[in-house]
Design brief:
- The chain has 325 residues and is mainly β.
- The protein has 2 domains: 14-32 and 41-76 and 179-202 and 238-325, Elongation Factor Tu (Ef-tu), domain 3 (Beta Barrel), CATH 2.40.30.10; 78-174, Ribosomal Protein L3, Chain: B, domain 2.
- It has helices spanning 107-112, 122-126, 159-169, 200-204; strands spanning 40-54, 66-75, 79-89, 94-101, 130-136, 150-154, 173-174, 185-191, 197-198, 240-241, 246-258, 280-284, 294-298, 314-317.
- Strands 1-2-12-11-8-13 form a 6-stranded antiparallel beta barrel.
- Strand 3 and strand 4 (94-101) form a beta hairpin.
- The longest helix has 11 residues, at 159-169.
- It starts with 39 loop residues before the first strand and ends in an 8-residue tail after the last strand.
Length: 325
């Protein structure tokens, strides 16, 4: 029989709306590539600013004209590879069969994070199906914190090419330019800004009822069909946790990858962040998450054909002070 079940209410959007388990988003799938390289990178959210670019979309009404564009700034200090992890496929999932650690790890990693012992055995290395790299960020270069964030990132290419690339980069720095380029589309994985326990009006956009309503104005008009059974349907908009959810934004556009911080730092620095000190990325539009929060971006799962493959030329960047906002 055909599926006649009605879709979920548009006000629900995501379900369940509960707090994320950790402040670091989880990547569930990676897009394969022919070349042996990292399929993702990480950075820390700085804030937003406005730039003026020359519109390069072919179908745009403002093609060739100077237009304003809101962008999000993500500071991307170089990451280091801590280990090479080998996976073996089983009937149910993938298991770690071996792991090779870097010889000289930073003291922040060795002191704060316990890593498994080295299992560099030839018989184990030959019997693997896929490779992933354990990399860690360097927030000490920004001044946010000392403890780095550990991330597992997949590799593209064939199995032999992956092993050659991983061994050559073990313990070395990886920059944002080695993974992404300007004009490329990316998928953003982040944990949104937490807003605590909120009512249904703010949480779901429920309309405020008339002043003649019984009991409450800022509540749903109906509590669902199962109310008489002592059961509330999950579709009913109730108060609860709002924000601090894991969200994925698809097909975000990289406008610029820069290393000249004087071109982006406003007078007095960014509010609640300070000055950008390392390489940075300008991404079109807004991105979920609080300032200084870890942002993961990977190759897009499905590209948007209407977005050009080349980044627009930047005319100017707003460097006015943000302290009075």
């Amino acid at each position: 029989m055909p599926n006649t079940r009605k879709p979920r209410s548009g006000s629900m959007g995501y379900w369940p709306r509960k707090r994320a388990k950790r402040p670091q988003a989880r990547v569930r799938s990676w897009t394969s590539m022919n070349n042996a390289q990292l399929l993702g990178f990480c950075g820390y959210k700085v804030g937003m600013t406005q730039i003026f670019v020359t519109d390069n979309k072919k179908t745009s009404l403002t093609k060739g004209e100077e237009i304003p564009m809101p962008v999000t700034i993500i500071e991307c200090p170089p990451m280091k590879i801590a280990s090479i992890r080998f996976y073996k496929k089983t009937s149910q999932s993938q298991i770690v069969c071996s792991e090779i650690l870097a010889e000289n790890l930073d003291k922040e990693v060795a002191r704060t994070i316990t890593l498994p012992k080295n299992k560099d055995k030839k018989e184990d290395v030959k019997k693997f199906d896929s490779i992933r790299l354990i990399v860690y960020t360097q927030p000490k270069l920004i001044g946010i914190k000392k403890k780095p964030d550990m991330i597992e990132i997949a590799l593209g290419g064939k199995k032999d090419d992956q092993l050659t690339y991983a061994k050559s980069m073990l313990g070395k720095d990886i920059n944002i330019n080695d993974v992404f380029k300007e004009g490329q589309q990316i998928d953003i994985h982040a944990i949104t800004k937490g807003k605590g326990f909120q009512g249904p009006v703010k949480r779901f956009g429920v309309k405020i009822r008339s002043h003649k309503s019984e009991k409450t104005k800022r509540g749903p008009g109906s509590l669902g069909g199962w109310k008489g059974h002592g059961k509330f349907m999950y579709r009913v908009a109730h108060a609860g946790q709002m924000g601090y959810h894991q969200r994925t934004e698809y097909n975000k556009w990289i406008i610029k990858i820069g290393d000249k911080v004087e071109e982006i730092n406003p007078k007095g620095g960014f509010i609640r962040y300070g000055l950008v000190k390392n390489k940075y990325v300008l991404v079109k539009g807004s991105i979920g998450g609080h300032k200084k929060r870890l942002i993961k971006f990977i190759n897009p799962i499905r590209k948007n054909k209407h977005i050009p493959e080349e980044a627009p030329s930047i005319v100017s960047v707003n460097l006015s002070s943000q302290q009075g906002r």
